[in-house]
Amino acid sequence: MMLKVVIAGSSGRMGKTLLEAVTEASDCVLHGVLSRSDSNDVPSALIGADVLIDFTRVEATMQHLQLCERMGINIVIGTTGFNAEQKQRIAKAGNKIGVVFAPNMSVGVNLTLGLLEMAAKILNQGYDIEIIEAHHRHKVDAPSGTALRMGEVVAQALGRNLSECAVYGREGNTGERDAQTIGFSTIRAGDIIGEHTVMFAGLGERIEISHKASSRMTFAQGALRAARFLAEKGKGYYDMQDVLGLRTD
């Protein structure tokens, strides 16, 4: 059976890559596109679809989510920048439809999350942790959703709360570094697709775990894997750890 896919943000950088991925997939068909939520008849585009893949902006994604709930259509969300309340709203939608929500759909990034958990548990004393991320000049949120997720994984492995130990940038006379903090540094420049490095810096050695994306196609292929996953699983709230079978808890 062909999976009928609607792409939101089809005129954007990620949207164009998703269109290419769907067109090339032998088990998917492009059912519709949404270029702007305020210039399309969105419900009409969604009628008869199996899944909406959405890598757009927070406000548009929340509107699309509500429509998908009402119409019984699964949704794959790669949008970033949601606040805690909005994340809870997305999770709640899993009671009615299938939802995969992940800040990064890349298989490599999600494997990296597992490596970070392992590293944090081993390097749990005497190592300062810094997260450095770089993206293109057009990205509107910082730090990236992927960087924040990496921070959450590391903090959880160390028994810390990221909201209490994160440091987002430094300036002036900051004093000595608090050993319990997790630092974030953000770069926005040119056409960088996405680069993330987590540094564990001790006395006499430094361990760095990095992921660098050279094409948006890796995210698009991951999103299609998520769409196929929902076609089999049905309603529920999932992330890419579920899709890739990497869940250990």
3D architecture notes:
The chain is α/β, with parallel strands linked by helices. It has two domains: 131 residues, 3-Layer(aba) Sandwich (Rossmann fold); 107 residues, Dihydrodipicolinate Reductase, domain 2 (2-Layer Sandwich), CATH 3.30.360.10. The protein has nine helices and eleven strands. It has a six-stranded parallel beta sheet with strand order 2-1-3-4-5-11, with helices on both faces. A five-stranded mixed beta sheet has the order 7-8-6-9-10. Helix 5 runs parallel beside helix 6.
Question: Quick summary of this structure?
Answer:
38% of the residues lie in helices and 25% in strands. By secondary structure, it is of the alpha/beta class.
Strand content: 15-25%
Which structural class should the secondary elements be placed in? alpha/beta
Average of the residue pLDDT scores: 94
**Which descriptor suits the 3D outline?**
elongated
What features would you highlight for this structure?
alpha/beta, 2 domains, six-stranded parallel sheet, five-stranded mixed sheet, 9 helices, 11 strands
Topology record:
Blueprint: E1 3-8, H1 13-24, E2 28-34, H2 42-46, E3 51-54, H3 58-71, E4 74-77, H4 84-93, E5 98-101, H5 107-122, E6 128-135, H6 145-157, H7 162-165, E7 166-168, E8 182-188, E9 194-201, E10 206-213, H8 217-233, E11 236-238, H9 240-243
Parallel strand pairs: 1-2, 1-3, 3-4, 4-5, 5-11, 6-8, 7-8
Antiparallel strand pairs: 6-9, 9-10
Helix pairs in contact: 1-8, 5-6
